[in-house]
Amino acid sequence: MHPSEDLPQAAVATAIPIADRAADAALVTRALAGEAGAFAAIMRRHNRLMFRAARGVVHDDAEAQDVVQEAYLRAFTRLRAFRGDAALGTWLARICLRTALDVLRRRARSVAIDPAQASDQEPQPEDAMSYFAPPDDAPDQALARAQLRALLESAVHSLPPLYRSVFLLRAVQEMSVQEAAFCLDISEELVRTRYLRSRAMLRDALGARAEACADSVFPFALARCDQVVQQVLDALARRGLLA
């Protein structure tokens, strides 16, 4: 399925502020003209979202960075397909999630879907994601915020990817149900169900504190951000997409 197809337009497009749609359109227009600064602006604006989307599927920061770079290249080479029906970040995140799933498929990491999901009764692209056991250690109630963040990252990291991806998009990236459903290519009801289950899993490990520091989970460090921007710009230049 093409990233721009089957978009729930009425639900998603109307939720995008006019100013944001205009900013997205301006950046896309400049990028299509080959302006390197526009590509860089798009990446710096969406790097954290893209990294978190990738990290919701793969279990390694370096691999997530590779996914982000590949996803940008996929997106930028088909940028003319972006119609503005969804926010540019949402469109990019969907491509990033599909790229991450392709990585898992290539590495033959897929396993059978969790029997507990039998009630979902909806074939999903992300069902190819691997499953990992929850952490054994409970957090110490006296841990400081920095330690709690590390524990939260560990707990989120241990979630089965189909739950982790929903949690990162909804709780960390603060996407709407409609946007998350579009990115993951699943129904809104399934987003709600998986989000509730992911929170329950985290609550078992961390209690009510799980989302207190969610905003600081999986930050995209400046050096890593700069590296992604430069490598993607270099690749675009080699492909003759820059003016």
Question: How does the SSE layout of this entry go?
Answer:
Layout: H1 9-12, H2 18-32, H3 36-55, H4 61-77, H5 88-106, H6 145-158, H7 161-172, H8 177-184, H9 188-206, H10 222-238
Brief summary of the model shown:
This protein is an all-alpha fold and 243 residues long. It has ten helices and no strands. The longest helix has 20 residues, at 36-55.
Q: How much helix, percentage-wise, in residues?
A: 55-70%
Shape assignment: globular
Let me know the largest β-sheet. none
What's the SSE pattern?
Answer: HHHHHHHHHH
Give the N-to-C terminal Cα separation: 30 Å
Category from helices, strands and their pairing: mainly alpha
User: Beta-strand percentage?
Assistant: under 5%
Name the average pLDDT.
Answer: 76
Number of strand elements: 0
What do you see in this structure?
The protein is an all-alpha fold and 243 residues long. 60% of the residues lie in helices and 0% in strands. It is built from 10 helices and no strands. The protein has helices at 9-12, 18-32, 36-55, 61-77, 88-106, 145-158, 161-172, 177-184, 188-206, 222-238. Helix 2 (18-32) packs across helix 3 and helix 3 (36-55) packs across helix 5. The longest helix has 20 residues, at 36-55. The radius of gyration is 18 Å and the shape is globular. The protein starts with 8 loop residues before the first helix and ends in a 5-residue tail after the last helix. Residues 1-15 and 109-143 have low confidence and may be disordered.
